[in-house]
Structures are given as structure tokens and as C-alpha cells.
Amino acid sequence: MNSQPNYTFTKSFIAGLVAGSISIGVALLLRSFMGLPFIPELASQTLFSITPGAIESQAVENFGPLAKYSAFIASLAINFVLYGIFGIIAEKFHNRYRWDSYIAKAFQSSLVAYIIMAIISVLLLTIIHARLGISTPISISAISLILPQILFGFTYSAILGGVKPISEKQVRPTSDSVKKNKSRMEFLRLVTASVIAVPILYFGLNRLFSEQQQENEQESLPSSSQLITPARPRPVGFEDPVLTPLLNSELTPTFLFYRIDINPIVPVVDEKTWSLSVRGLVDNPLTITYEELRKMPPVEQYATLECVSNKIGGDLMSTALWKGVRLKEILDKAVIKQGAKYIAFRCSDGYDVGIPLDRGLMEGTMLAYDMNLAPLTAKHGFPVRAIVPGLYGMMNPKWITEIELVDGVYEGYWQRNGWTNDADIHTVSTIVIPGMAPLRDRFRKLDEMPNLIPGQKTPIAGIAFGGDRGISKVEVSTDGGVTWKTAAVKEPLSKYTWVLWTAGYVPTDKTNFKIIVRATDKAGQIQTAEVSEPFPDGATGYQSIAI
Predict the structure, then answer these.
(1) pLDDT per residue over 240-260, tens digit each?
(2) How far is the C-alpha of 97 from the C-alpha of 197, rounded, in Å?
(3) Peptide bond into 137 cis (omega under 30)
(4) CA-angle at 517, arms to 491 and 457, nearest 5°
(5) Looking at the whole model, is its pTM more than 0.90?
(6) Domains along the chain with CATH numbers
């Protein structure tokens, strides 16, 4: 007598899970084609917005860009489980109110799902509005939930086939063959619904994430191929052909450029409707369209970006050629008022950050619309992003829609989560060859190099970066820091980029040794040996490899 409730519980949960799969798939399509709110995406955004910076730093350090995708996938999995629970709740309603018709049961099931999902949606939107300033009308969210929940209710009721509820007080004499036939029919309907759900889910997810890949990211990079040519001799110290992959990727191809932001799904902005507003403490507020921005006198510059979450030797650092307009030119058109101290950037994804006014007026600070001789890709901030040399990547916002001049220190999204607002880049250096530093992922064809073999002639080389201060010297030790040798440093692409260095070869007369690197910036500051974690103001310490 006790097995029947357990069987009903499991059956209702599985039916809810399968029906929910169709509901989620349709919600994905509504998100992709119409831009309507999608609960798992809202949940992952909410999670990131309330996560303390120290925890977020560990997540990025351990998982990199996968951290936010993990949050999205977890939210998606929870959404599936919720629909299974909805199935159990709906079955209890069916048992209590005994609406035996298919339409009535479908209505009950849809209503249960809609009410609970609406409550969840309102809570998430409220938190997102408070944390990110993104305001989505509750009516839009309410409308977006209707079709998916109706499909859930009708699919759920169809799977159970309108079978009357059975409880311990309502056990009717039924032959085993009839019971088996009912179970068989329920199973077939469950399989049919699953067969329908899988392609809808696949198409929805594929459509959503394929938008992230439909970008002009080419593995061939014209400007990169021009760095080393037969007509241009190799820099001193870089004559060894083994160093060719390092030289050829001094400029990071767009498809290898690191990406860290707050979004599980890359924002897609239409440049035809996009505009940039400049307001606040200015005499002449501006609204600039994409076409108008591109008609302004352009500038090009090479600049390296590094994420504040980057660990020593980490891969959250890349260099590109940027093209755009100097921020100073735009601010001059707006005419800055006395008393302005900070520039606040606000973006289409809800991200915001502020930089000191003097940083914004520097020669190298720009609003970029091109990257590596092509328009910015969606994941790198199309249509417009900021490039602020000398400051960590979080101060270089993407998808900018608004610039406001304010009279005090402005703390942005990450600063409200505990990250530093004084984001000057620490001087760092990394050994790229030999070893397996994660930064190798930003260089093409390094994986084709032979592994280090004892006694083999293997060069020592890597990068160093000091923000907008530049690098004056790189030193390498192969005896654990007892003695140091000055490395050969290649002239950088610009005063805002990393430099390549090389320091001879791995000792062939030793079987065990430790390679350490340190750099000195052009302000005379030697890279600190003190080890610190990325949170809250960037990692410090020497990188070393033991061989």
C-alpha cells in the first residue's frame, strides 16, 4: 500500500522534468529571437552581482572565463529540477481538486508553474536593478513567462494522459493487464515528449551561444604577420628560430584575446540603434551615434590589457591594436565644468566603473571601435569600449552607452564588491619558454615546440609588463635567485604594451635548476618579490619554474 505514493511522486517529478525541458527550450528561443528575460541567465547575473570580490577572484583564478558559464549551467540545472518539483505540486493539486479533464489539469499545471516562476523572476529582477541598475519592466517578464508555462502545463498533463489520481483511499480493482497498459502508454508519451524536447533545447542553446561565435575573429592577423619579415632583421637576442612563435604573437590574435566580464551570455548591441550620451558636469551634453563616432579623427595604438584577477604567470593578459577616438576629444566637445573629478562609464549590460578625470584626459585613453584591423567583436565590446592604459582591465569597460562627469570618487560594479578603485597595474614578468605557464595560451603554435630534454639547447624567453610605465630591464636567474643575468628586451610595440625578452639558454650542465624572472619599470621600480593574491588590487611576486 505504501509503494503507490512513491511511484506517483517519482512519475510526477519525471513528467515535470520532461515537460519543463520543452518549456525551457521555448524560453531560450524567446530569449534568443526576441531578447525576452531568461530565468537561468537572470539567476547567474544575480549570483555574480552579489558574490564578494574575494570569492569571485578565486572562481576566476580556478576556472577563468568558465566561472560565469558554470554559474549559468548551474542555474539551468536548477531550473530543470524546479520543473520536476512543479510536477509534484501540480499532481497534489490534481489529487485535491479532482479536475479530471485534460484542459483543467493543464490549466492547473500551467498556473502552478507560472505563479512560482513569476515570483522568482520578480525577485531576480529586483536584485539586478538594485545591483546593476538594469530596469526590466515587470510586465515584460510576466508576458515572457506565459507561453513557456502554458506549454509546461499542457505537456505535463499530456504525459500523464488525464489519468485519475490514485490515493490509498481510492484504489479501484484493476487488472494487471490494464495497469501495465496504462504504464506503457505513459512511458510512450514520456518518450515522445523527450524526443520533442531535445531538439528544441539543442536549437535554443545553439542559437543562443552561436551568436557568441558569429564574429570576425580570424586566425590570420595581417598586422601580426608584419612584425617579423625577411626584410626586417630579428631583434638582438631573438635570432633562434625557436622564438618565432613568440615573436609572431607579440600581438594577440583576436580569437586568442582573453575575455572577462559579468555576462554568461555575450551582449549583442545593434550599432544602428546604439548611441553614446555624455552628460553630468559638462556645459554641452552630447549624444553621439556609431556613424558619427567613426567619422571623428581616428587614432591607432597598441595596448596590453590585463585582468586584475590575473595570477602570476596567468593567461588573463593580451595585446591588440586598437583604433578609435581619444576620449579627451569627446570631453573637449562636451566642455568639462569646474569641479569634475571622475569619469563614470555605464554599459549596456549594467556594468559601470569610474576613472579619475586626469586618466581620461591622457593621450592614450581612447574609445575604441576597431580591434586588430577589424570592428570590435561582440565579446570584446562592440560597438565601443574604453582603453585606459596603465589600469587593470576592469577599468576598461565594454559596450559603453553613457559617460558622466561627476564631482567625487566613483565606485563601480567591482569596487562595490570589494575590488580596488586604485587599479594601477603592478609590474609583472612571465617565463613563457620553457615551462607550461598558462600565458602560453595567448601565443600561437607554442604547443608545437618540442618538450624540454636534458642537455638540449632550449631558449629562455617571455614577457614583462609595467602598465603605462614601460619596462627598462628584465633579469633572469637560473640558480634560484643567487645570481641574475640581464635579458635582451625587444623594443615594445608601444609604451602601453608588454615587452618580449630572452635570456640565453637553459643550462646544459645541470639536471635540476630553478628559473626566476623579475622586471624593472621605467620609473625605476623593481618588481616586488612579495607574493600576494589577485584580490583586491592585483597579484604580485616572482614567477619561477623548477626543472
Answers:
(1) 888 988 998 899 999 999 998
(2) 29
(3) no
(4) 85
(5) no
(6) 3-213 (no CATH), 250-417 (3.90.420.10), 428-546 (2.60.40.650)
